[in-house]
């Protein structure tokens, strides 16, 4: 028979968006001193957003963004979705295009049917359409396009913050750029602050670059992070922490998180994550809300006190 306290505890957990697959994990949660979060898809939305823009002299940021959104109209790339969303948020009118082409691993090319922005010195020629490219550093190399001082400085700064940069190229000249960053879940900050207040240390684990990891960790107030960790090494990081006599939880969503979820003292999967992650975890966050990790620890601590 299931002890009464545990039964109550499990149904309370369910009401808090927590699915308990392994009751031992729920009990262990009260003793956790370290919680490791996966970055992409767990602390972040797994999407990117446009966070900054720059142009060469004579070009307007909104005109650049509208042209980029136009060229990206038919692309399925995550970067294209972020650029279209940024144009939508700013209520820009996005011109039509023809002859769209995806340049695998580089960007896109399209002919934009619009009048060119004023101040480009070519009014009158724009109506026939103008061919533009949108893409990253690989595209610039491919086209043999150099950056002017403004865009070069913009790219350096964005790079040091771990952001990707995508350029608008017209007539073999880069005329504007946008910086893209991970979209951090609104709830992540709150979850981490609450865990700190409860005396739990928070770490982040990611395969992403050192620059990206540092930027996200700083934004969220996470003091320890492990960057550029290969999928097969994620569980090693958990073991290293356990060897420091810590009781460790891992929170993750991906296939590559599964070994770490299994290895952790408490494995916590994001409900919308992959089946493999969910099946490797003792606890599942049904609402995909990192704040439910806080509820989990709180509930576990509360029921422990009841049992004494
Ligand atoms: P990944 O899966 O690592 O993003 P891709 O091969 O899809 O790799 O793209 C590599 C790079 O090419 C991107 O980081 C970006 O700089 C550029 N790129 C690819 N597709 C697009 C696009 N639709 N719009 C802008 N840039 C793109
Ligand atoms: Mg992930």
Automatic annotation (TrEMBL):
Keywords: ATP-binding, Cell membrane, Ion transport, Magnesium, Membrane, Metal-binding, Nucleotide-binding, Phosphoprotein, Translocase, Transmembrane, Transmembrane helix, Transport. Its main location: membrane. One of its GO terms (molecular function) is metal ion binding. It is found in: Cell membrane. Coiled coil: none annotated. It comes from the Archaea. GO terms for cellular component: plasma membrane. One of its GO terms (biological process) is monoatomic ion transport. Belongs to the cation transport ATPase (P-type) (TC 3.A.3) family. Type IB subfamily. This is Heavy metal translocating P-type ATPase.
């Amino acid at each position: 028979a299931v002890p009464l306290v545990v039964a109550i505890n499990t149904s309370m957990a369910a009401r808090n968006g927590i699915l308990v697959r392994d009751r031992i994990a729920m009990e262990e949660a009260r003793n956790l001193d370290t919680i490791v979060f996966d970055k992409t898809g767990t602390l972040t939305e797994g999407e990117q957003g446009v966070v900054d823009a720059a142009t060469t002299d004579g070009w307007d940021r909104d005109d650049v963004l509208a042209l980029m959104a136009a060229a990206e109209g038919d692309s399925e790339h995550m970067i294209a979705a972020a650029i279209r969303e940024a144009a939508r948020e700013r209520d820009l009118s996005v011109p039509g295009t023809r002859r769209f082409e995806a340049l695998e691993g580089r960007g896109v090319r399209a002919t934009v049917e619009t009048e060119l922005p004023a101040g480009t010195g070519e009014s009158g020629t724009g109506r026939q359409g103008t061919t533009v490219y949108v893409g990253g550093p690989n595209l610039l190399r491919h086209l043999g396009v150099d950056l002017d001082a403004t865009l070069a400085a913009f790219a350096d700064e964005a790079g040091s913050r771990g952001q990707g940069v995508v350029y608008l190229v017209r007539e073999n000249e880069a005329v504007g750029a946008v910086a893209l960053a991970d979209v951090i879940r609104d709830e992540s900050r709150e979850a981490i602050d609450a865990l700190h207040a409860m005396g739990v240390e928070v770490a982040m684990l990611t395969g992403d670059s050192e620059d990206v990891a540092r930027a996200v960790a700083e934004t969220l107030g996470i003091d320890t992070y492990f960057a550029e960790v290969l999928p097969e090494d994620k569980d090693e990081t958990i073991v290293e922490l356990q060897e420091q006599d810590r009781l460790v939880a891992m929170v993750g969503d991906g296939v590559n998180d599964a070994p770490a979820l299994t290895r952790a003292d408490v494995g916590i999967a994001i409900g919308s994550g992959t089946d493999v992650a969910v099946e490797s975890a003792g606890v599942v966050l049904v609402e995909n809300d990192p704040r439910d990790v806080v509820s989990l620890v709180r509930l576990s601590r509360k029921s422990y006190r009841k049992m004494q």
